[in-house]
Design a protein that fits this description.
The complex is a heterodimer.
Chain A lengths: L10 H10 L4 E2 H11 L8 H13 L3 E7 L5 E7 L1 H26 L7
Chain B lengths: L2 H6 L1 H25 L4 H12 L2 H12 L2 H19 L1 H30 L10 E7 L5 H4 L6 H10 L3 E15 L4 E8 L3 H5 L5 E2 L14 E4 L1 H8 L9 E4 L2 E8 L13 E4 L17 E6 L5 H18 L1 H4 L3 E6 L7 H33 L1 H9 L4 H37 L14 H23 L7 H7 L6 H36 L10 E7 L8 H17 L3 E7 L10 E5 L12 E7 L3 H5 L3 E4 L13 E5 H8 L8 E4 L6 E7 L6 H4 L8 E5 L5 H10 L1 E6 L7 H8 L7 E7 H7 L2 H35 L1 H9 L4 H37 L8 H27 L3 H7 L1
Parallel strand pairs in B: 3-8, 5-7, 14-19, 16-18
Antiparallel strand pairs in B: 1-9, 1-10, 2-3, 2-6, 2-9, 4-7, 5-8, 6-7, 11-20, 11-21, 12-20, 13-14, 13-17, 15-18, 16-19, 17-18
Helix pairs in contact in B: 2-3, 5-15, 6-13, 6-15, 6-16, 8-11, 13-16, 13-18, 13-26, 14-17, 15-16, 18-26, 18-28, 18-29, 26-29, 27-30, 28-29
The chains are: A alpha+beta, B alpha+beta.
């Protein structure tokens, strides 16, 4: 567990939006998906998942419906709204820009600043 | 889902949250079981991984965005619960608040309607008043100058920025159909209603063709007259009415409540049909003019334009217009002198509200101090300080708003009686009413009061030294809170002193004023205005005969001892202020001394009981053709001639070119009322005989005349016989505005009496509240000191010592409060002197009478807790610790 790194601030929302973009999905599945996709590298604190989901729903980036799962139980399925989609694209772009910049700085050879 | 939606469905939201989390845990657990864990371990792991369902839930609630509302809701219910638990406190607090807020709201409603609201016409800021302006015109004395009719027409024609309308005030008689009745009339330009933007209730306004000499005789009736005389019948339109002996066709009815310039006008006639001499030249100026700025035009443009027109007219007609200009200003309602009284009353009820707030604050504070331990406990358990402060403030806001709701209800019930109770006519009374502005004010005041009395307790929420508070228990009173309590009591007492002393000053003023000699003998005198038969008015000779017949007729009525005519009755509305001079050279108009001229007949002194000081009064020889004579009062004698004997001296007035000879001096009459006369700007009085009024003025003078009779029986008993006797041969002469002199004298003090009553009531209320405050605070403080007192008694203090101990504390507060109050009351007294007519200055006697009342009551209130303290059983008290 200790080998996993903490999720940088604000990225949880981005990841949730990304997962929800693939189709309606309930909370537990999002947690599973995040864990699988990040190959157990990123620790998704399940405790902060639900507050994040509710916050995103509150902001209109996600919409939710109660539907039956394949096992026949009722679950709350989240899906991306139009507004959420726009937000996802925006955040993805800015995330890529940021990581690119950080990468560039980190790859700089020592003394390269001269 | 919007936030209020989510809030209203919060129960459902809670259920769904619960269901969602349960699903997560169940799924996780079943996955773990599939991986080989036992069901019990799997569930435990799942719950741990989620991180505690309750905490997650709390975070989800935060994420919902309705947290503040839910907290507020919770606080609200908590506040209502605590109030319900202390019904006595809640009742006292709510009642005092409701009274305070109710009274303040009533006063604000009146002020709003009378002083603050714009005129009740569309786009009132586009309306302007147009006045004449000459350098020698005394505006302070005569008000704004009206326009000559021809000047009005020229201004209207030449102005491109203003749509001008005019009116001439008139009065007359409607005699058919039905009984003859006096009516107030406006002669208006055809466009008056369209300029004001007021649509007629029925029918139409006048046509331009009707607003000309020789136009079709048409009239518009007021809604009130229409209801009164025609029972609101729709057949009235097109009907003929007889006004001043001529037949007019009714073409319109004004909307209900339409009162131009706050006057009760009954009938409107076209101004252009008036061909009287005063409309035919530029000398007299009878036309009051208003205008509406045309779209795009500004007031400055209109002013510049009017100035140019004035300039041109001055060149064209130098004889009449040489120095006359025209000015325009935004039209404002004329409310006379009520504003000072209104603000005074608002200040007074505001003070009562403050006292109520101080009272509740100290009661709340007492509770807050005893709850200190509970609060400290809650802080220790993790409640945020801000959250607790918010809770305290919510509680006081709830109290404030509940008091406000009750207060508005009180105001709604009390407003109409208050207005009816207002002495005389309150200007714009019809526009006074509860509306959203008033509600906003009431809410504001309620919340402000809530903040005022809630802040001190709220700030007591403990932050540091929790441990100490918790250990000390609820029985300790920290010095700071004792001081705060004292401050509230001191403020209450100081405010009560101000109100009591003000009430005392008003009471003394009333006593003083009502013993003043009005200058006339007010007992057994009846006055009434009288309108002659319209048929007589055209011929001066007929007019003189008609009046002589009227006087003879009135003399025949049983119980009548003497009869006179008079145009301006003392202490009644209406006066005739004219300039005079005592040397042949006429001074400029604004340099002339002013006197109140009254036109009377020889028996005037006998009817009014005015003493003759020198010379003689009028007799039947004083008529046209003989020497012009006047009689003056002793004030004018001193003003015009100093110590010299005025008899035989000459006085010039603007009526004729010849001087009049002074033949007598009579006593001064308090024409401006008992209260107002001493400070009046014009006090000199001059009488001239009706018989010497020139023929040309006779018609106008007749319209202003009243008849006054001295009776040997109760004056109201002669009203009906007098009415019958004076009907005249055509049955079309009427009496109106019937008053006894006693009524007029009493009415002249009505405002002072009204203020005295209100101040008296509210000062009493303030005294009561202050006593409740002192009692409450002392009872509380003494209660807190029970163990201390127990120790003192155990150590040998006597009951008397303890009594003194408590009383000393209250005496300290009382004397500080009185000291502050006396200083404030002195200032308040000076304010009253400035604002209330005839007010007696504050003097030590008033203080000497009012202060013991307050101190006595306050000591009485503190005596109860002091006595209770002195009866404490030391052993019981110590065991309590």
């Amino acid at each position: 567990m200790n080998a996993k790194s903490d999720l940088p601030q604000g990225t949880l929302d981005l990841l949730i939006l990304k997962v929800a973009a693939l189709g309606p999905v309930h909370g537990y599945a999002i947690a599973q998906r995040l864990q699988q996709v990040s190959r157990d590298v990123v620790q998704t604190p399940q405790g902060s998942l639900y507050p994040a989901l509710h916050r995103l729903e509150n902001r209109g980036l996600l919409a939710a419906d109660w539907k039956e799962t394949e096992t026949g139980r009722e679950a709350k399925f989240y899906r991306l709204t139009r507004k959420g989609k726009a937000q996802l694209e925006k955040e993805t772009a800015s995330w890529l820009r940021l990581t690119e910049a950080v990468g560039l700085i980190l790859e700089m050879s020592e003394g390269g600043a001269e | 889902m919007s936030w209020w939606h989510r809030f209203w469905r919060s129960k459902q939201m809670e259920e769904q949250l619960e269901k969602e989390l349960r699903f997560h845990i169940d799924q996780h657990a079943s996955d773990l079981i599939a991986h080989g864990l036992t069901p019990a371990d799997a569930r435990r792991r799942a719950r741990l991984d989620l991180g505690g369902p309750e905490q997650v839930k709390e975070q989800c609630r935060d994420a919902r965005g309705t947290r503040w509302l839910e907290d507020f809701w919770q606080d609200l219910r908590y506040a209502l619960r605590t109030l319900r638990k202390a019904p006595g406190f809640a009742a006292v607090a709510l009642l005092t608040l409701a009274l305070g807020i109710g009274a303040t709201t009533v006063m604000f409603t009146v002020i709003d309607g009378v002083l603050l609201k714009p005129l009740p016409y569309p786009a009132p800021d586009r309306l302007v008043a147009v006045h004449g302006h000459t350098a020698t015109w005394n505006t302070a004395l005569y008000g704004e100058q009206n326009l000559a009719y021809y000047d009005f027409l020229d201004c209207r024609r030449a102005s491109s920025s203003l749509d001008l309308a005019g009116r001439v005030y008139d009065a007359g008689m409607i005699s058919e159909p039905g009984q003859p009745e006096h009516v107030e009339e406006y002669q208006i330009s055809a466009n008056m209603f369209s300029v004001l933007g007021v649509p007629l209730f029925r029918g139409r306004q006048f046509l331009a063709d009707e607003d000309k000499p020789g136009g079709a005789p048409v009239a518009i009736l007021s809604y009130a007259l229409w209801q009164r005389r025609f029972a609101g019948s729709s057949a009235t339109l097109g009907m003929a009415v007889v006004l001043d002996g001529a037949r007019y066709t009714v073409v319109g009815i004004t909307p209900p409540g339409f009162r131009p310039e706050d006057a009760d006008i009954d009938v409107y006639k076209p101004m252009g049909q008036n061909t009287a001499p005063y409309m035919q030249n530029r000398g007299p100026h009878p036309v009051g003019a208003i205008g509406r700025l045309r779209p795009g035009a500004s007031l400055t443009q209109a002013q510049a334009e009017l100035a140019a027109i004035g300039h041109r007219l001055a060149q064209e007609y130098p004889k009449t217009n040489a120095e006359r200009g025209f000015v325009a200003e935004t039209l404002r309602p004329d409310v006379g002198d009520v504003s000072s009284t209104l603000w005074l009353l608002l200040g007074m009820v505001g003070m009562v509200l403050l006292i109520a707030c101080a009272n509740i604050a100290s009661l709340l504070l007492a509770r807050a101090v005893s709850r200190e331990r509970e609060l400290a406990m809650r802080v220790a358990l993790g409640a945020g300080r801000g959250r607790l402060t918010r809770q305290c403030l919510t509680e006081s806001a709830v109290l404030g708003l509940s008091g406000g709701v009750l207060g508005v209800a009180l105001a709604a019930v009390g407003l109409r009686p208050f207005l009816t109770f207002w002495p005389g006519m309150l200007p714009r009374a019809g526009e006074v009413g509860l509306d959203w502005r008033v509600l906003l004010f009431a809410i504001g005041v309620s919340l402000l009061s809530g903040a005022l009395f809630g802040l001190a307790p709220a700030l007591r929420v403990p932050a540091r030294e929790l441990e100490q508070t918790l250990r000390a228990g609820a029985r300790s009173v920290v010095g700071g809170s004792r001081r705060l309590h004292s401050i509230f009591v001191i403020v209450e007492i100081a405010l009560a002193v101000v109100l009591l002393v003000s009430a005392g000053m008003l009471g003394r003023t009333m006593l003083q004023l009502s013993t003043l000699n009005p200058g006339v003998n007010i007992q057994n005198v009846l006055t009434a205005r009288m309108a002659l038969s319209p048929g007589t008015l055209a011929d001066p000779a007929k007019i003189r005969v008609a009046w002589r017949d009227a006087l003879d007729g009135a003399r025949r009525v049983p119980g009548v001892q003497a009869v006179t005519m008079v145009d301006t009755v003392p202490m009644r509305q209406g006066n005739n202020q004219i300039g005079y001079w005592t040397t042949p050279v006429k001074p400029a108009a604004n340099q002339q001394p002013i006197t109140l001229a009254s036109c009377v007949t020889p028996d005037y002194l006998k009817v009014m009981g005015i003493p003759l000081r020198r010379g003689r009064f009028f007799n039947d020889q004083d008529r046209l053709g003989n020497e012009s004579v006047v009689v003056i009062d002793d004030v004018m004698a001193r003003q015009a001639f100093g110590e010299a004997d005025p008899i035989g001296r000459h006085i010039w007035i603007d009526m004729g070119s010849d001087p009049a000879t002074v033949v007598g001096v009579v006593g001064h009459v308090r024409h401006w009322g008992l209260a107002g006369d001493d400070q009046a700007k014009v006090r000199a009085q001059l009488y001239y005989p009706f018989a010497q009024v020139p023929d040309g003025l006779l018609r106008r003078w007749s319209e202003l005349m009243s008849i006054a009779v001295r009776t040997g029986i109760a004056p109201l008993n002669v009203v009906e016989p007098l009415r019958r006797e004076l009907r005249g041969s055509g049955n079309d002469q009427v009496l109106y505005e019937v008053r006894t002199m006693e009524q007029l004298a009493s009415d002249s003090l009505a405002r002072q009496r009204f203020l005295l009553l209100l101040f008296g009531v509210f000062a009493g209320l303030a005294l009561l509240l202050a006593c409740i405050g002192i009692y409450g605070v002392l009872a509380y403080l003494t209660g807190q000191r029970v163990p201390e007192i127990g120790v003192r008694m155990a150590l040998g203090a006597s009951a008397g010592d303890v009594l003194w101990l408590v009383l000393r504390q209250s005496l300290g507060m009382i004397s500080l409060g009185v000291a502050a109050g006396v200083a404030a009351a002195w200032e308040a007294g000076r304010l009253l002197e400035r604002l209330v007519q005839g007010m007696q200055p504050a003097e030590p006697l008033t203080f000497a009478i009012m202060l013991p009342v307050l101190v006595g009551a306050a000591l009485l209130a503190s005596f109860v807790p002091a006595r209770r303290a002195s009866r404490i059983q030391p052993m019981l008290a110590l065991r309590q610790e």
